[in-house]
Amino acid sequence: MHPVIRLFATLIVLLSSVANAGQGREYVNSYFELWLKAHNFTKFEKKPNGLFFPAQGVLLDGEIHEAKEFSSSKLYSVESRVSITFKDGRRLDDFVAGIGSTAEEAFKDSLQNFCLTTLHPIYAELFDHSDSHVRKDAWEINGTRRRIFLSEWGQRGVSINEATQKQIEQLIAAELRNTSPTKELQWAKLVVLIVKGKVEQVVFTVNGMQDERITRRLSAFKWPASGEFTMAKLFFVIGGV
User: Fold this and answer.
1) Does 155 have pLDDT greater than 50?
2) pLDDT above 70 for 13
3) 9, 52, 160, 219: least CB-packed within 10 angstroms?
């Protein structure tokens, strides 16, 4: 059976009942295989449990976590779970959602969102420091200049303008200056939710763990009043030394 047909059949099974996590791993891994080859990167091995990068000791894997059909709008929603396990055992887990007019479109949209906001900075640090798909900077952290690879901001609803984005990034850089991260690659994520001008949620995490101090500092930031809805995500990587 053609892979696309098998993928659609898998999604139909998920849509016909309460979605069961753990399905569709083959299609998630195939998507990332094509993504890597599009970047002219082939130094990985296909394993039953994901894509393994022997030189770095890193495993990339994922699955379809949930699929829904909205009959009123004829739209589909798919949430995929994607994980990156590093050589030292640390694990980055992300759940990314996608929407489309077909289940397949929604599935691809979910993984594209992961690539745009998360995978590109990881890829740049691990494999290609000159990758043109990320923004590059260098921040002083605990007396050491560290490489920084930032994604573009992922946003839904009313967008936060570029000037404000820059202010927030500078604030984060200042707050990280006196922290003491280990020498290994670190990853950080900011998620902001604003509804009808009210900041409903601000969360800043480092390596998947919430940093309470920086979260409080960002919560106190004078966020721009939005219309009905703003959801924004910034992901970046602190390079190893």
Assistant:
1) yes
2) no
3) 9
